[in-house]
Amino acid sequence: MPYTNVVFNGAYWKSFTHRPRYTHDDIPDLTGKVAIVTGANSGLGYATTVALAAKGAHVFLACRAMGKALEAIEKAKAEIKTKYPQFKGEPNFDFLALDLNDMKKCQHAAQEFLKRGLPLHILVNNGGIMTSPYALSADGIEQQFAVNHMGHFVFTMALLDRIKESQPARIVMLSSIGHEMTVKGGIDFETLNEKHPSNPPTRYGRSKLANLLFGKALARRLVNEQIYVNMPHPGFVYTDLARNNKESMGGVAAGVYDLAGKMCAAKPEIGCLNQVFCATSPEIEEKNLRGRYFVPVGIECRHHALDEELQEKLWEFSEKLVREKLKGSAVEPAREP
Description:
Number of strands: 8
Number of helices: 13
Shape: globular
Strand content: 5-15%
Order of helices and strands: HHEHEHEHEHEHEHHHHHEEH
Strand order of the largest sheet: 3-2-1-4-5-6-7-8
């Protein structure tokens, strides 16, 4: 049954009435740290960018549209000046062109970052789409799976050597409670690109399950490194991620979601705290927390990605797609020790 792992988790429900166990004040000094946040020009990605930069990190906004990213940078600078008066100097931002809908462009984005010669201490794979109408990516892959999983798979693996050189480091794979509502069997590899029998919510769930499976498999491969891979669910947050609901789910369902969002959902600056916890909390290294699924904020929860066979099947499937679509690619996925 979907969502049972959360429904019966008392600690999760207490998070609605208790002060978050990790707040912006708990973020340590990040001076000298370099971070990349995908999908950083709005919503959770923007809020995460502000949170990291306000503590001294050099943050790259990895986004598709330069104009929107540059607007977000100016907005973030003004916000930090207003909300974080203790911050001295100028926040350090850069734009990195990244189109998660196209694997070649994801690889190119990683290469462009590597040319800068900078370390990479924090990678927050936040960007994504939700319940969008059926479509195929530039590579002919079902779009939600392509954007939410494959784009990040290519981008992350192309950056992994630099992350290893920069350790201790963090990789945050944003997932969702939606991973519990997916197609039969979790991921239907043979029919993934077909419109039926999946629908927009189950295609979203499939992509978010892939985030968890990839995160678990990557964490296992990095067990001997000081690289901490974790997968947070942000909670119910009101952002423009649901902009496709009306087209894909109908006006009534979209209206109910929108009303609930306005009445009950957290704002992005609160909703980002779970991924900021994974990206910055000293507790992650102190307790050697790897491959964990967290609900807000920093509460470990059971999930549906425990099947190592399915994790490896997804890894092999993703590698195969990389070989097919990026012939002669320099992307070399990590091997299990």
